[in-house]
């Protein structure tokens, strides 16, 4: 099918506001009587909080509000259910340099900074741990009340790994380390909150998951979700780091209620690095065995993820690492042990590929080295072991789509691998690696996405209401293209209202490469619903079979008879007259056939077949 809008190069829907500087990010929003907030962070990696004295800060002229952990509900929050372990502001002890202790609101940023310096915190230093394997040793200090400081683990195997290694002609054991990486989004994290006389919070936040942020705010503020409205303005990049709630969200809301004035908190670049999230550092001990013909006979992995001081996405990162360890090669004998371990370091969280880069770096490096030991071409080894669609997998994964073989062949040909491999001069090299990933996974809370398409009867313009969060990747433009395609319109007709928990339908948020899948199908369903309402009327006007109507080029006409039709605006007016000014509103909802990854580890030690993967070459 030839599309007229989808797949075409069209200006993004946010191009012009951004180009001329009209797009508003959190830091651009200024409200009357707005206060500026700052958060006090711990200077120690591990310490008991003995006392927090805010009296001097409260007396400083210009300071309007101060809050500490002792003055808020003692409620933990987090991303994954049953893994909540962090308070909005800590009250008993701090667990890393950067942990949140107090917050202030003042007339200007300089006064807020000075107020922080006047807060006196008495600490009792505690032994600190900075290596996950040390943290797991018997007798190590406990960062939380969790045995061996292990907050999440996954131990799975299939086939017979011991027999597989015994059959191998070449076996390597190596240890790989993947360092911490910070997302460093162009826009620092920020939040602006108001609290009105009816007890309603409104929070503008640089977030990837507005509805999930509302849930965490409701829990920590101890108010119903109906009393919180989260609005996502323009966001300058997220990459997974803006999935979590942070102290800036909670403190802005709490101080807005205390002061009765809007409060805005924007992190400094230093705070982004120390107080938000980072890609998990990992130590990975890997054993790979292959036969003389290049067949991978067995693999075993012992993985230690440095989770830092809190869980964030702990169970998910370990489950993902197990999945990604198995992709994209066919390994019939496999053992995996993964541990998410608390340390007194900044917190690990979601970042592009969430668990994939670390484990695939180790796996493909190991495969390269054992192939060279055997005198085999690393690309040929990958081709021999590549996954294929609809081939039974020993872990019971369903591989429904996989173009890995073709990707390897095309990539190796374009880079002239055969000519260049092992022939480059000393100090030069050429590399090849593959990976597999899944798209559209759950965020451990809800996965369905809704959309509303409203057609304005005065001018025929179309407004899409979607809960999807565009964080710079162009989601709003893609969704508008889908709706425009279904209705036969150009992008000029499209308007969008997005990511406002008070106005837009429920949406899981932006993560896991799933926005187009989830929100796109919901938008299409809403467009089809609106389209049906138009078809019902226009078919009578044109005396045509409803199934024969075509929506294209801003017209509605009869298939095979393009002259027999109405312009888009004429069609909308026809509906208006027929339905006595009833609005044209289409509703759509999409729920993928997938479940939460951490529920897929079955009692038999295999992986549930309910989760489908798409493997790709890179």
SSE topology sketch:
Blueprint: H1 15-19, E1 35-41, E2 47-53, H2 55-59, E3 63-68, E4 76-77, E5 86-87, E6 93-94, E7 100-106, H3 109-118, E8 120-125, H4 132-135, E9 150-158, H5 161-167, E10 170-178, E11 190-195, E12 201-205, H6 210-221, E13 228-231, H7 247-259, E14 263-266, H8 269-275, E15 282-290, E16 296-308, H9 314-326, E17 334-342, H10 356-373, H11 378-385, E18 398-402, H12 404-414, H13 417-420, E19 434-437, E20 449-455, E21 462-466, H14 475-487, E22 494-498, H15 515-542, E23 549-552, E24 555-558, E25 561-567, H16 568-578, E26 584-590, E27 612-617
Parallel strand pairs: 1-14, 12-13, 16-17, 18-27, 21-22
Antiparallel strand pairs: 1-7, 2-6, 2-8, 3-7, 4-5, 9-17, 10-15, 11-12, 11-14, 15-16, 19-27, 20-21, 20-26, 23-24, 24-25
Helix pairs in contact: 9-10, 14-15, 15-16
Number of domains: 3
The coarse overall form would be flat
Report how far apart the termini are. 28 Å
The CATH C-level class name of the largest domain: Alpha Beta
Oligomer: single chain
Strand content: 25-35%
Helical content class: 25-40%
CATH superfamily placement of the largest domain: Aldehyde oxidase/xanthine dehydrogenase, molybdopterin binding domain
Task: Tell me about the largest β-sheet.
Answer: 7 strands, mixed
The pLDDT mean sits at: 92
Number of helices: 16
The CATH architecture of the largest domain is: 2-Layer Sandwich
Structural class: alpha+beta
Report the uncertain regions: 594-618
Q: Nearest-angstrom radius of gyration?
A: 28 Å
Strand order of the largest sheet: 3-7-1-14-11-12-13
CATH topology of the largest domain: Aldehyde Oxidoreductase, domain 4
State the total count of DSSP E strands.
Answer: 27
